[in-house]
Design brief:
With 334 residues, the protein is α/β, with parallel strands linked by helices. It has three domains: 53 residues, lambda repressor-like DNA-binding domains (434 Repressor (Amino-terminal Domain)), CATH 1.10.260; 133 residues, 3-Layer(aba) Sandwich (Rossmann fold), CATH 3.40.50; 127 residues, Rossmann fold. 43% of the residues lie in helices and 16% in strands. It has twelve helices and twelve strands. Helix 1 crosses helix 2, helix 1 packs across helix 3 and helix 8 packs parallel to helix 9. The radius of gyration is 25 Å and the shape is elongated. The N and C termini lie far apart (68 Å). The model has no long low-confidence stretch (mean pLDDT 88). GO terms for molecular function: DNA-binding transcription factor activity; transcription cis-regulatory region binding.
Length: 334
Amino acid sequence: MSKVTIKEVAKEAGVATSTVSRVLSNNPKISEETKAKVNEAIERLNYKPNAIARSLANNKTKILGVVLPSEADDLLTNPFFINAMKGMSIYAQNKNYYITYVFAKDGKNEFESIKEITNTNLIEGIILLRVNENDESIKFLNTIEFPFVAIGRPEKTEDVLWVDNDNFQAMYNVVNRLIQKGHKKIGFIGAIKTLNMSKDRLKGYKMALEVNGLNYDEELVIHKQFFKENTGYAGAEELLSKHEVTAIVTTDDLLAFGVSQLLNEKRLEKISLVGFNNIQLSKYQTPPLASVDINADELGYYAAKLLIEKLENEDIVNTHYIVNTEFIERESFK
């Protein structure tokens, strides 16, 4: 059976094809009588409008854009992106929106990729997967008044839609628990220190030390360039070559995996280790890795929710969501 066309619907309803298009785009200039006639014809013929054609008639593509950082290239090694994308997709699908993913590749940073994708007229809104200090992507999107939401707390939250965890509190809680267990010399290994998430977690670390009467020693804090296993290993090498610590906190499980490898090689079984993100592989480490679950799928879900509500001109009660974290205690927490 051949697919019913818009021309056949117009003929059945006794109107022009342009009138059918206007009815599909809910044009207010079309009378209720004409709308009823066209809708009856659509029902009789079981016409299914082409999603792209319909979006062109509406001037709406119902497509959201997500630019993935270059280090997300191997998605299987950093499941944060997969989980966040899963959450976005669940909400978008419920609202009949589509998501297109673009990798920042070939030497281009995320900002350049964002400029390109916003120029295509393909997407209606964009989801930023992370936020830097003085974020040029946020400044650019605000300047061109392009709808967006950020996963991560922006420095200026006014008129910006965003979702995040309370990264300060989550790290404060971890370090506080370590101190309560008797740890006084705690190393910190993070990456990309310009990310607001990284800054907030470092602040939580510092505050927990201060509240418990311990001095902050910047030599115990290592920042690497990427959230990767090998950079975690290198960070641990750098830290342990100069200092004796009884515990190490990291800002990402991938960093913690590298730290764990070095601790195993050096047989430093007594050093406590904590990661962040609670990715699936954490429980299969030796020993199983204690980690903070940031509920990445919820971060993605609420990011898509905020953006779609804006695009649908709904009254937005919340301009941001704080997603709860949960400390998952495993054998590496000693």
